[in-house]
């Protein structure tokens, strides 16, 4: 025995509930796509949201992008290495790195993307 508790085996009820939840999520996602599809006239308006998405939605998208790989892998490693106090290290680097990058480049990116009609960054 290695001292760790054994990995629990999923029950049939759990598998059915998880499969039903996943199917419901996929159906809901498809329904949202079908309903909102008619609101976008062009592919570019789909990509850039008519260029009228406010700062709250943009900030949430930036946070979701930033937190994807970092939160899944890096933050677990820092927490494992330093314990819960390591979470402060992650927060400090988020403030030191992400906030200035967004503030310094966000307005310029918006200006140049409108000027050149860019939908993505090359």
In short:
This protein is mostly helical. It has four helices and no strands.
Give the tags.
122 residues; mainly alpha; 2 domains; 4 helices; 75% helix; 0% strand; transport; Sodium:solute symporter
Query: Low-confidence spans: pLDDT under 50, at least 5 residues?
Result: none
The overall pLDDT average reads 80
Distance between the termini: 53 Å
Structural class computed from helices and strand pairing = mainly alpha
Whole-number tally of structural domains: 2
Name the beta content range.
under 5%
Count the E strands: 0
Give an account of the 3D structure.
- By secondary structure, this protein is mainly α.
- It has two domains: 10-39; 50-122.
- Helices cover 75% and strands 0% of the residues.
- Helix 3 (55-82) packs antiparallel against helix 4.
- It is flat, with a radius of gyration of 21 Å.
- The N and C termini lie far apart (53 Å).
- The model has no long low-confidence stretch (mean pLDDT 80).
- It is found in: Cell membrane.
- It holds the Pfam family SSF.
- Keywords: Cell membrane, Ion transport, Membrane, Sodium, Sodium transport, Symport, Transmembrane, Transmembrane helix, Transport.
- This is Sodium:solute symporter.
- Its main location: membrane.
Show the helix and strand layout.
Layout: H1 12-37, H2 43-48, H3 55-82, H4 86-116
Helix pairs in contact: 3-4
